Structures are given as C-alpha cells and as structure tokens.
Amino acid sequence: MEGKLIIFSAPSGTGKSTLIHYLLTQNPDLRFSVSATSRAPRGNERDGVEYWFLTPEEFKTKIRNGEFLEYEEVYPDLFYGTLKSEVERIRKAGQHVVCDVDVVGSRSIKKLYGEKALAVFVRPPSIEALRSRLENRNTDSPEIIEKRLAKAAYELGFATEFDRVIVNDEIEKAQTEVLRIVRQFLNA
Q: CA-CA distance, 148 to 36, in Å (whole number)?
C-alpha cells in the first residue's frame, strides 16, 4: 500500500516546524520529505539530511526533466523544491510523507495527489501575535520582519484553499489538533 502525503504551509514564525517535529515524533509511519536547494550547505549541513544540495545547473536540468512536484526560484539561481523521487520513494515503502512547502507549492502538490494528500495551513492567531513572535526570536532585522509580515499577509489569503487550518495560539493545543487531524486522515 502506498503512503499518503501531509503538506504543511504557514507564514514564517507560526510554529509550523515545531508542529511538524512533534508530529514526526508521535507517528513512526511518517517520514519528512527532504527538499532540494541550489544554495551551498551551511555549517554542518549534509546532503540528503537537511537538503539535497544541487548546483543551479543541476536544479535547472531537473526542472526541464519534470523531476519536481513543485519548486521556486527565490532569487536568480537560488532554487528550492520538492523532488518527485523523494516523495515517491517514501510512499512506495508504505510510509506517509510530510512536506513543508510554501502556499503555491502546497496547492501544486495537492492538485497532483488529490485525496491522497492532506493540505494543512498553520496560521498565527493574529498578525500582531506573529509580529511579536518574530521580534522575540531576535534573529531578523526590523526590515526583514516587515518583509516576513507582508509575505504572511499574502499567504494568509490562501488559507481557505487548504483542507484544514490550524490556529497556533497555544502550542500544546495546536499539537493535539494536528495529531488528531493527521491520524484521522491516515485512518480514513
């Protein structure tokens, strides 16, 4: 039996990565899909662990060959994407795939897999709460925070197109909800 897909999208700072990590620890049949990128590894990042690291030319060749479920060119020659081979390898092993992609990529994957995929959007309780979270992280300049908030406002406009929307106001509550939703989907 082939596995199903759970696709997560959210504005930066909503706690999506925390929810995905929690979900992976609670269900041994879930595997995270490692994305591909054309950027160079940072620090101790390893190929096939944090990302599949490709040169811009390799990435473009894979695009031409239709090897991505979705991809985005963030800046010239800086690509991120989800490899079909990565998702299908996991599914054919009978395990379920968890993908972390942007709203456009999520829509593309959902369209391809239909009822075999669950698209989950994680939203903050408000833009003000998101601003506070981003500021409290102390990782971005005020200019970057403003860019993230503008992108978040854009992304929030797509929330109604997802199968499920989780408001991450309290992390424990959001974890319980995401676990319930995913288990219900996998057992359907």
A: 22
**Percentage of the chain with pLDDT > 70?**
100
- The conformation of residue 160, written as its DSSP 8-state character, comes to G
Supply φ then ψ for residue 82, to 5 degrees: -110, 115
Residue 41 DSSP one-character state = P
Rounded CA-CA distance 33/17 in Å is 13
Q: Residue 102 contacts by C-beta under 8 Å, 6 or more apart in sequence? A: 9, 72, 155
The token duo for 68 is 């991505």
pLDDT per residue as tens digits for the range 105-139: 999 999 999 999 999 999 999 999 999 999 998 88
Residue ranges with strand state E in the chain: 5-9, 30-32, 36-37, 52-53, 68-75, 78-83, 96-100, 117-123, 164-167
Report yes or no on whether pTM surpasses 0.85.
yes
Mean pLDDT score across all residues of the chain: 94
Residue type, 183: R
Provide the β-strand partners of residue 9: 121
Q: How many CA atoms lie within 13 A of 167 on its CB side?
A: 6
